TrEMBL record:
Signal peptide: none annotated. It comes from Acinetobacter johnsonii. NCBIfam families: MJ0570_dom. This is Diphthine--ammonia ligase. It holds the Pfam family Diphthami_syn_2. Keywords: Ligase. Residues 13-226 form the Diphthamide synthase domain. Its EC number is 6.3.1.14. SUPFAM superfamilies: Adenine nucleotide alpha hydrolases-like.
Length: 230
C-alpha cells in the first residue's frame, strides 16, 4: 500500500486537496511529475471566508490557484458535514476527468484512513506522494526546489514563539527548529505555513503582513495580497 499511495497519480488525471501550505504544495508538485492536475479543492469554515485547515483568506487562496494555473473548487462546512461536502467537491473534479485524489499527508495514519475512505466512496484512487518519507528530507527538498513559504500560525504550547511568525522557511531556519526540538514539518501542529512562490507557481505572490492575532494557545499572522495581486 505504501508504494501505491506514493505513485497512484502516475499517468492519471488528479484533483489535489490544497491547504496553501508547504506539504500540500510539495505533494502537488510531486504529483505533477507523474500525472495531470485538473483542479484544486479547498474546504472553508462555515462562514466561507477562510480555509478550514490554515485559516487563510479567500483572496490568498484564489491568488495561489491563479498562480498555479488551476481551477479551484471550495465548499463551506462544519466538522459535522465536512466529509459530505468534501465528497461533493471530488465529484465535481471527476466531471473534469479526475481519477485520483492527491493529498499532502506524511505519516498520520488517521488522516490516511480518512482519505482512503472518501476515495473509496467516490471511486477515486488515493495518491499521497509524501507518505512515510523522512520529515526532514521532505522540508529540505521543498526548500531546495525553490519553494518560498511563510510561517503564519504557531502553537505557543509546542515550543513556537511569536517571533517565529513571518519567518520564511530556509535550511538555516529549519536547523534552528530542529535544535529547539520542533518537528521540521510541524506535524504535531507546531506551525502552519503559506506558500507564496515555487516551481508550481507561474509568478510569486506579493503579500503584506497584518497585526498578530491570538486565540487560546495560538498566534496568527494575517497576510493579505498587495493590491496589484488581487
Amino acid at each position: 500500500m505504501l508504494t501505491q499511495w506514493n505513485t497512484r497519480a502516475q499517468n492519471r488525471k488528479f484533483v489535489a486537496s490544497y491547504s496553501g501550505g508547504k506539504d500540500s504544495s510539495f505533494a502537488l508538485y510531486q504529483a505533477m511529475q507523474m500525472g495531470e492536475p485538473v483542479a484544486l479543492i479547498v474546504m472553508l469554515e462555515e462562514q466561507g471566508l477562510k480555509s478550514r485547515s490554515h485559516g487563510m483568506s479567500l483572496d490568498i487562496i484564489h491568488a495561489q490557484a491563479k498562480a498555479i494555473g488551476l481551477p479551484i473548487y471550495t465548499a463551506s462546512a462544519t466538522w459535522q458535514d465536512y466529509e459530505n461536502q468534501f465528497i461533493q467537491l471530488l465529484q465535481k473534479a471527476q466531471a473534469l476527468g479526475a481519477e485520483s485524489l492527491v493529498t499532502g499527508d506524511i505519516d498520520l495514519k488517521a488522516h490516511a484512513e480518512w482519505n482512503q475512505s472518501v476515495c473509496d466512496k467516490s471511486e477515486l484512487s488515493l495518491c499521497m506522494p509524501l507518505w512515510q518519507r523522512p520529515r526532514l528530507k521532505i522540508v529540505h527538498e521543498f526548500i531546495q526546489l525553490g519553494f518560498q513559504s511563510i510561517i503564519v500560525t504557531v502553537n505557543l504550547n509546542l515550543g513556537m514563539t511569536v517571533e517565529d511568525l513571518g519567518q520564511v522557511l530556509s535550511l538555516e531556519y529549519v536547523d534552528q527548529l530542529v535544535a529547539r526540538g520542533i518537528d521540521p514539518c510541524g506535524e504535531a501542529g507546531e506551525f502552519h505555513t503559506t506558500v507564496i512562490d515555487g516551481p508550481i507557481f507561474k509568478h510569486p505572490l506579493s503579500v503584506v503582513k497584518g497585526d498578530i492575532l491570538y486565540h487560546e494557545n495560538y498566534a496568527f499572522l494575517p497576510i493579505e495580497l498587495e493590491k496589484r495581486d488581487i
